[in-house]
């Protein structure tokens, strides 16, 4: 059986077919834009997560280096290696706390006030070369007991640790990496 369509019916079917093709194209373009946006956001989120985890790792490495230097100097005090102690303050001093650690110039390499030999190995456990070795400073800190008795032998120990990618600019400000300072007061 052959069905013959009139001219009007054929035109109506052709028009309906053209409308459907245009809608499919528009929907496909909208879906493509949505999928692209989701992909860009996913990549941006993963990059941000990677940066956060790298910053945490760098900070942890610097903290571990500072802790190592701090423990080294504490052991030097406990073993009574007195040649490392600097800034011995008398009890009648107007200075209330030791302050040599606060000036960056006292931490420069070659100054007798710092102990950079705490870790003399220039590479870490992973075999990476460490550019800036951690260091520590020991300052005598006379503390008076609560009952007003004589001062006990006390020391303020300050340590600095750095990450592998630590670097500074010409004015001494941190350019990259991480720097961690730790302090402890040790009484004997």
Automatic annotation (TrEMBL):
Type 4 fimbrial biogenesis protein PilX N-terminal domain mapped to chain residues: 21-71
Pfam families: PilX_N (PF14341)
Key word Membrane present: yes
Domain of life of the source: Bacteria
Keywords associated with the record: Membrane, Transmembrane, Transmembrane helix
Regions that span the bilayer: 21-43
Entry protein name: PilX N-terminal domain-containing pilus assembly protein
Taxonomic source organism: Polaromonas aquatica
């Amino acid at each position: 059986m052959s069905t013959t369509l009139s001219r009007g019916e054929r035109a109506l079917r052709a028009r309906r077919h053209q409308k459907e093709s245009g809608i499919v194209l528009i929907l496909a373009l909208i879906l493509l834009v949505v999928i692209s946006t989701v992909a860009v956001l996913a990549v941006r989120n993963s990059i941000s997560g990677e940066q956060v985890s790298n910053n945490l790792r760098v900070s942890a490495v610097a903290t571990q280096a500072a802790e190592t230097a701090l423990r080294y100097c504490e052991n030097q005090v406990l073993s009574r290696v007195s040649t490392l102690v600097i800034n011995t303050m008398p009890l009648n001093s107007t200075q209330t706390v030791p302050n040599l650690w606060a000036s960056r110039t006292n931490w420069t390499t070659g100054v007798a006030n710092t102990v950079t030999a705490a870790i003399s190995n220039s590479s870490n456990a992973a075999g990476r070369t460490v550019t800036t070795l951690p260091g520590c400073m020991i300052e005598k800190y006379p503390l008076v007991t609560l009952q007003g008795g004589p001062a006990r032998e006390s020391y303020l120990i300050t340590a600095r640790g750095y990450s592998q990618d630590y670097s500074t600019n010409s004015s001494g400000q941190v350019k990259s990496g991480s720097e961690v300072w730790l302090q402890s007061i040790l009484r004997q």
